[in-house]
Every structure is written in C-alpha cells, then in structure tokens.
Amino acid sequence: MARDIEGSVVTDFEDRMSYGGYLDLTTLLSAQRPLSDPEHHDELLFIVQHQTTELWLKLVLHELGAAQQLLREDQLAPALKCIARVKHIQKTLTEQWSVLATLTPAEYGQFRDVLGNASGFQSAQYRAVEFRLGNKNAGMLRVFASDPPAQALVKAALDAPSLYDEFLRLLARSGYPIPAAVLERDVTAPWTYTAELVRVFVDIYRDPQTHWAAYETCEELVDLEDNFQLWRFRHLKTVERIIGLKTGTGGSSGVPFLQRALDLTFFPELYAVRTEL
Asked: Please, are residues 211 and 204 in contact by the beta-carbon 8 Å criterion?
C-alpha cells in the first residue's frame, strides 16, 4: 500500500526553501506552552483554539484594511472581494467554537487557574476588528495600556473611519444624498442611528436594478453583521456550556456580559430599512 515518491519530487532542502521554512513552523509550533503542572491534556486545545483565532483575526484586519482603502479609491468590486473573504473567515471562526465546546467543565477546571486574569476580552485584534466595523469605545484603550504595540493597533482602528463610514462616503461621492452630519461625524465616537440615512437606503432597496452596486454592498454588510452576531452567540453558548454563570477570568460577569454584546449593532440603518419596505 506504499506510494512511491516520484523522482522529480524535491527531497534535499539543504539550500532550498522548504514548507516549514516558508511558514516558520519552528516558531509557530513552539508557541503552544501549557502552564499547568503537571501539564493537563486539554490545555493544548484551549491554547490552539485561541491562537488560531488570533491568526484568523490578523487576516480579517488585513482584508478589512484593504477593503477600506479600495472604497476610498472608489474601487467597489475588489473591495467586495475582500469582504467576501472576511465572510468565509467568519464562518470558520464560528465553527471553531464546536471544537472548544468539547471541553467539559471538569476538564477546564483543572487548568483554568493558570490563566490568571487572561481573557479574550483583552484581544487587541478582536477589538480592532470591532472598531473597524464601527463598534467603537475609546475607554477600551486603557485595557492595553501595558502593551503599547497592542494599544497602538487598537487606537489606529479607533481613529480611522470605519468600513461603514467609507461606504457612506463612497455613496456620497456617487451622488447619493448622504446627510452632512454623517460625513462630518467624529469617527472615534460610537455610531449613532441616523433616520435620514434610512430614507437613502429605502430608495436603493426599492429599485435594486438601478442601484445594484450600492444594493449589493448593503447586503454584503448585512452578511458581515449576521456572521458577527452568530460568532458572538456561539461564543456565549460555549462559555455557558463550560463555566455556566461563573465570572470570567478577566473580571467580567461572564455570560451576562456576553449576552449584552448581542444588542450591539454595526449597521442599524441597514436593518431598519427592512421595516420601511
């Protein structure tokens, strides 16, 4: 049942780029360092789950940044390609919770103490993603005060226009009557629901063929929000399954804190327009 190695297959990597070398697997695969003593079998699962999430978040930030730049350049089609990739990443991130959900309360309890106050709440990349999508909160900066590079990443996302801001500016440049208050708003502030904006979207949604590019982009943004909310919900249910109503390691109330996040929205006018149609 053995398969012979073809003669053309490269096997000598003394002076060639290898798979492991290109991906720097020595560094990557040595980054999982369980702290439990004796080492608990399930701590590796917990570490890999969160490290892979951070890798996907890095790619999400990369794609959102590119999408925002393309929107600034009025290149809507390639921007939508970036958004489409983010949507696929979101589905992978959501499905990952099913792996962590195999961790039972008894198993987690055997190494939870080594986390100290470490918590996903402190993920700078997650916070930057939220900020890029418009859910901004300047108070979060103090969480990263002890980590200047992380704080700089979050602050850059706070200070920049969100993806939604860039889309609305593109619409304005395309002749849509976007309210001046929206275009001139303080982009570091949380988004404020704007009823006048709903009227713009009503016109788009009532005649999608005429406004197809804008219409398609609106629906892509709704997809992003739906996916994000599904991720939040799976996070909540996984935490509830593993620790019940215990407080979080970072000091939050745990499940109730995560529950309140489900009330947050990135693009409220894109949901409000559905009531008006």
From this structure: yes
What letter represents residue 96's amino acid? Q
- Least Cα distance to 256 among 246, 264, 271, 241 occurs for 246
pLDDT string in tens for the chain (277-residue length): 888 989 899 999 999 999 999 999 999 999 999 999 999 999 999 999 999 999 999 999 999 999 999 999 999 999 999 999 999 999 999 999 999 999 999 999 999 999 999 999 999 999 999 999 999 999 999 999 999 999 999 999 999 999 999 999 999 999 999 999 999 999 999 999 999 999 999 999 999 999 999 999 999 999 999 999 999 999 999 999 999 999 989 989 999 989 998 888 999 999 999 999 9
Q: Name 173's Cβ contacts closer than 8 Å, sequence gap at least 6.
A: 74
Q: HSE-up of 173 (CA within 13 Å, CB side)?
A: 12
76, containing H or E segment: helix 76-100
Q: Judge contact between 266 and 225, C-beta under 8 A.
A: yes
Q: Which two tokens stand for residue 166?
A: 């860039």
Alpha-carbon distances of 112 from 38, 116, 162, rounded to whole Å: 13, 8, 36
Distance CA 11, CA 13 (A): 6
Q: Encoding tokens for residue 172?
A: 């304005």
